[in-house]
Amino acid sequence: MKNLFFSGVKHFRYERKFFIESLNESEIEALILAHPALFREIYYRRRVNNIYFDTFSHAHYFDNIDGADKRLKVRLRWYGNTFGEIKKPALEVKLKHNLHVGKLIYPITPFILNEKFSLDKIQKTFKEAALPEALKMHLAGLKFSLLNGYSRKYFLSADRNYRVTVDTQMEAYKILSSGNTFLSRDIDRINVILELKYNKAQDEHVDKITNFFPLRITRSSKYVDAMAKISI
Questions:
Q1: Structural domain range at position 114
Q2: Largest CB tally within 10 Å, which of 37, 149, 181, 207?
């Protein structure tokens, strides 16, 4: 099933992550804007939210922990407020093969995230959505795993070949099949995650980008880190 999803991705890119503890957001942004690649801010700061799904044995989680060559994450993603009416959610299957990352993205019917939100309701939405049958079969065997959100800023190099995102204000919530109060949560107002994203053709020149950042590349995953804190 996993290989079937990989075969459906038409474009893979590189992602490199830097988990930063020694610098605050302002210092990191100053570092980005002083880069000789002439990064500039694009879009606008926005809140990114995700509901992650996993098997009952947490196969997706443990694939990440074990560093499996091929691994996937299934999540609902939306932007803006974490709770309330979710107007433009999308189902994402994020696939990773070593440093190569690809996504399958499908729009999903709007829903309301509150104490009445349940696994049964979202599974019904999946069944009625225009999704590939193989994906529907996979989704039927998944449960809620984690709800998280973070503030994200975006930067693009002058040659438009490299994009940097900076994630702060991270929150993670335990999410049950039904009856959620969302009181079990972890809030991280200190750490920052910087991600560098670029196409395969730019990999041979990426050292010119990364060498300027006095940061350590990490396998850090917001999903995995939050799961450890919220507990599986």
A1: 2-230
A2: 149
